[in-house]
Amino acid sequence: MPSVIPEDSVGLVTPELLHFSEPLALACGRTLPAYDLMVETYGELNASRSNAVLICHALSGHHHAAGYHSLDDRKPGWWDSCIGPGKPIDTRKFFVVALNNLGGCNGSTGPSSPNPETGRAYGADFPVLTVEDWVNSQARLADRLGIGQWAAVIGGSLGGMQALQWTISYPERIRHCLAIASAPKLSAENIAFNEVARQAILSDPDFHAGHFQEKGVIPKRGLMLARMVGHITYLSDEAMGEKFGRELKTDQLNYDFHSVEFQVESYLRYQGEEFSGRFDANTYLLMTKALDYFDPAHAHGGDLAKTLAGVQARFLIVSFTTDWRFSPARSKEIVNALMAARKDVSYLEVDAPQGHDAFLIPIPRYLQAFSHYMTRIEV
């Protein structure tokens, strides 16, 4: 709980639920007849409507990116270190828009929402979504807010994929793209990790083919396992070693398979327990599939440079040395393709021990470069 809200915070913020009644055609061939998006905004839209920045979230993210919902909040929004007065995304200059994506479980229409055809929760009947679908829904959000062109679209991990897709789907509506700790498509290893996580959920007896809400249960064990697997991939070996090493919780070994003996076991179980209480299992399945399907170069025979030939935005691509989930080599694929397509691109590789999660951490060199780039954006 903040006893005093910091001066560089956006302060107390209130989410807004926006309804869209126009049907949205999806890549899977289905159509959402109508949908809601949960949105937060920070800062003020200028008179020329030229200072708007869109924040795209990663797999388990949501609309609450900065500030506090109440003075009782234990911590601020998930990217508070980067959004606010004097921070890289300076709300004295920019009007910042953050949303919970379609298919989410934090207010936007998703699997836990009522299906208008049945009156019951969609559950497994909610359509599979793609990054392109999200960008299309975000374009409608921009229309609703009166934003013809984003000054920048910014995201880390899966959010970076959305930022990249914006430059392809709506090249004239984005001036700058910041893709952080991201990739042009998932590796086979990444898809494999996602499949293990999905199978943990799908095989949970309480999953009930995705209609667990009707049974009054949640596939808690499956969600816990999925989160534990995922969390291991978000941290580097070095970060895990520094944080936990082989430290034991007690001096006594129990010589069994059920006791929590190592600190790292305790940490993973806590993460899984906490996550299973706040995240929807069907949303987890949707988000990981959207990651798997993302491959914009597929339409051009795998030629990413050709795919990016029509983009108009300028780019900042950022990677982190110990991120083995989305390694620097994957960011360099984007950079090389942009250079081959003769686009304006800046690249930063940050030496950081935290692994994939580094994009969420206020690492000085990262924040300095981030801030410097954002000051170059004219509004």
TrEMBL record:
Q: In which pathway does it act?
A: Amino-acid biosynthesis; L-methionine biosynthesis via de novo pathway; O-succinyl-L-homoserine from L-homoserine: step 1/1
Q: Cellular location of this protein?
A: Cytoplasm
Which EC class heads this enzyme's classification?
transferase
EC number in record? 2.3.1.46
Where substrate is bound, by residue? Answer: R227, D357
User: So what does this thing catalyse?
Assistant: L-homoserine + succinyl-CoA = O-succinyl-L-homoserine + CoA
Keywords on this record? Acyltransferase, Amino-acid biosynthesis, Cytoplasm, Methionine biosynthesis, Transferase
Q: Which domain of life is it from?
A: Bacteria
Name the record gives this protein: Homoserine O-succinyltransferase
Could you tell me which species this protein originates from? Pseudomonas oryzihabitans
